[in-house]
Amino acid sequence: MDGGGATEARCRLFYVDSNPLVRTVIEGLARAESDLRIVGSSDSAADLLKRDESSFDVAVMAWDMSDMKAPDLLKRLRAKQSSLKSVIFCNTRDASALRLAVRLGAQGFCYQHDKPSVLFNTTRMVASGKICVPFLDFSKVMETPLAGLTVRERELLDVLARGWTNQQIANRTGISENTVKYHLKNLYQKLDVPNRARAVAIWSRESDS
Fold first, then answer.
1. Which of 3, 156, 164, 177 maximizes the CB count within 10 A of its CB?
2. Measuring CA to CA, how many Å separate 146 from each of 96, 104, 135, 169?
3. Whole-angstrom Cα distance, residue 101 to residue 111?
């Protein structure tokens, strides 16, 4: 087999990361991996979405890209029924990020705090058709911060997301405003958030996933 055939046998990667320093370092390190080849890179998820998916084998995406976050890109790929294999290269060790990525279809997940070899090995595993993520209790993957809420608490979150004030909630449910505040306090405690803005953010995020 000639050199051209060997090159074509490499796993082809498209890498998206808003951090130019990290992107440059990973591209440089990848050149030393004989079986990997970065065929394209960008700070923008839109560039990946426009790319012919047959031109690369695995999409490696940072959690933060210049135009969207990894969950948003995964949702767009799912919406167009893409069969693209994806690895999330995350800059946070927040377990909720890992669970969300897996729920949205990422086959690989690793952290920027790990050695580069972890990223490359994860990419190889995903390219071969395997799922490669840090230890995760898969029985809890589908659990979300909303899982422990009652139907009434979900309804309360829904009207908060619509912009209702405490007084509007009280008027339309027939309870006092103080009672509304009491229910909201309990809701925030369950979600472990300090205010309605954070509660609505969780509701919006989980409703879309």
1. 156
2. 13, 17, 23, 20
3. 13
- Residue 145 inside a domain? The answer is no
Note whether 94 and 29 are same-domain residues: yes
- 167, two tokens: 């007084």
Domain that holds residue 182: 151-208
Q: Give phi and psi for 19, each to the nearest 5.
A: -90, 110
* Last residue in a domain, options 82, 108, 140: 140
- H helical segments located in the chain: 3-8, 20-30, 45-50, 70-79, 95-103, 116-127, 151-161, 166-173, 177-191, 196-208
- Residues 132, 52: one domain? yes
What are the pLDDT tens digits along the chain (209 aa)? 444 444 446 899 999 999 999 999 999 999 999 999 999 999 999 999 999 999 999 999 999 999 999 999 999 999 899 999 999 999 888 777 888 898 889 999 999 989 999 999 999 999 999 999 987 645 554 556 676 788 888 888 889 988 999 999 999 888 899 999 999 998 898 888 889 898 888 888 766 55
| Residues whose CB is less than 8 angstroms from the CB of residue 1 and which lie 6 or more positions away in sequence, other chains included | none
Q: What is the pTM of this model?
A: 0.66
Name which of 173, 176, 202, 175 is nearest 187 in CA terms. Answer: 202
